[in-house]
Amino acid sequence: MRYYVQTMPGVEEIAWLEIRALLPEAQFVEYQFAKEQNGIVLFDYDGSVEKLLQLQTAEDVFMEALSISKVFRGWRDLQELKELVGRGEAVGRAINALGRYRKFSTPPTFRVISRKYGKHEYRRKDMERVVLEALQLRNPRWTAVSDAAQVEFWVNLLGSRLLLGIRLSDKQMRHRFKRKVELPASLRPSVAAAMVFLTEPTAQDVFLDPMCGSGTILLARRLMGSYKQLLGGDSDPTRVAASEQNIAGRRKKGLPSTVQLRRWDAQKLPLETGSVDKVATNLPFGKQVGTPAELERLYPAVFKELERVVRPNGRLVILSSEYELVKTAVRQCPHLEIERGYSIAVLGQWGRIYLIRRTNGA
């Protein structure tokens, strides 16, 4: 079967790395893009659907039902689409596969969700209506509903490319953990998971987020697997308290012994030299977090401190849109080296995830 995952824009390459790690038998097909809404990774895979739902860098998982590599952008597209959805073999195979997986006891409810990018003679609603009518023709016992459907068909018209998928995930995948305290500008769980994945987590990690905010990255690290210790802190006591509540969750006794949160200045961390294995953090960026002069002072000091506390060959994953500040600060640290970067959209603004290695040397 062919599947695809939707990610936050720019995370698709990292998602493929996770797919390859979790599902070694998966075969990459291609990337697609829904403008600044989603990245899309298509791949072939013949294993368990349940394993697909374990992916943490994805927002949603879909089974591909139909793919048209080139539409002509005119009304005849809809005639072809109605025929392929209503009578085509590909859609039939996907619906049969869904039935084997979901095992409906009665004919299910369904709905169609559509997105369209680019100029076409027809409207998005025209395309959505055609797909809905074709599915009703194909499955007359299924009931179309406007919300809370058992089956969702997503039709994406990406310029000249059409992709129809059946959603396998639910909203729990996008919201893997519930934060008791929500703070402005908190990362989405899938973006935090992408950053954590790039640190190459191991069970022996001492993992640090020096500007932990509401604790999203630390929560993502807990979900990613075993670790030795999680360290987090922030200069704002309100944020430290939010992290404590979010990480403790329903624990009546508070934080587990393997998690330590403190109020601190990330420019002067109360940690021993070389005591940290992995770092992932979302550095302040943009006008809302300080003046350019303040950021110009902050970045070199934070990177110098991270160079000190991270052991040789440790890994740092940093998110920021202050591209020049990051590169300048890293150049001032002789034992830090940028290995690569991934451009991603965060809260409507493009930033970059930097993968940085702490080289050998004192």
Mean pLDDT: 94
Number of domains: 2
> Class of the largest domain, according to the CATH hierarchy?
Alpha Beta
| Distance separating the two termini | 51 Å
Could you say which overall geometry the principal axes of the C-alpha atoms support?
A: elongated
Low-confidence spans: none
Tell me the number of helical segments per DSSP (H or I, 4 or more residues long).
11
Using the CA coordinates, give the radius of gyration: 23 Å
Topology pattern, helix = H, strand = E? EHEEHEHHEHEEEHHEHEHEEHEHEE
Which oligomeric form is depicted? Answer: single chain
The spatial strand order of the largest sheet comes to: 2-3-1-4-8-7-5-6
Number of strands: 15
Summary?
The protein is an alpha/beta fold and about 350 residues long. The chain has helices at about 10-20, 50, 75-85, 90-100, 125-140, 170-175, 190-200, 215-225, 235-250, 290-310, 325-330, and strands at about 1-5, 25-35, 40-45, 60-70, 110-115, 145, 150-160, 160-165, 205-210, 230-235, 260-265, 275-280, 310-320, 335-345, 350-360.
Helix and strand topology:
Blueprint: E1 2-7, H1 12-22, E2 27-34, E3 38-44, H2 49-52, E4 60-68, H3 76-87, H4 89-102, E5 109-117, H5 124-138, E6 143-144, E7 151-158, E8 161-167, H6 171-174, H7 189-198, E9 206-209, H8 216-224, E10 229-234, H9 237-248, E11 259-263, E12 276-282, H10 292-309, E13 310-320, H11 323-331, E14 336-346, E15 349-358
Parallel strand pairs: 5-6, 5-7, 9-10, 9-12, 10-11, 12-13
Antiparallel strand pairs: 1-3, 1-4, 2-3, 4-8, 7-8, 13-15, 14-15
Helix pairs in contact: 3-4, 3-5, 7-8, 10-11
